[in-house]
Specification:
This protein is an all-alpha fold and 101 residues long. It contains 5 helices and no strands. This is TyrR-like helix-turn-helix domain-containing protein.
Length: 101
């Protein structure tokens, strides 16, 4: 049920007018299928923009940490400084995957 609620909330955000149409649904479904891990924002009674941004940032970093081996690779992919990535990973307690060859 929460997945359906989340999907509808995302539709409301991306809809360009007051009505959700078939194209909006198809666009969102296509976007979800193209992404390995969809990024979710859950709305409570009151949306705290700072918390929502942190949630998205954390999800992006988690996804990147699964895809890339080093903070340098993540930084290049996200177009930010490596030191920024290191600080953010520490802030959200995200570990890089350990790859043994």
């Amino acid at each position: 049920m929460s997945e359906l609620q989340n999907f509808i909330e995302r539709l409301l955000i991306i809809s360009k007018n007051d009505e959700i149409n078939k194209q909006d649904v198809m666009n969102l479904l296509t976007d979800d299928l193209q992404n390995e891990l969809p990024i979710n924002i859950y709305f409570e009674e009151k949306l705290d923009l700072y918390k929502a941004l942190e949630s998205v940032e954390s999800q992006i970093l988690k996804r990147a940490s699964m895809k890339y081996k080093t903070t340098t690779e993540i930084a290049e992919a996200l177009n930010v400084n490596q030191s920024t990535i290191s600080k953010k990973l520490k802030k959200y307690n995200i570990k890089l995957r350990n790859v043994k060859l």
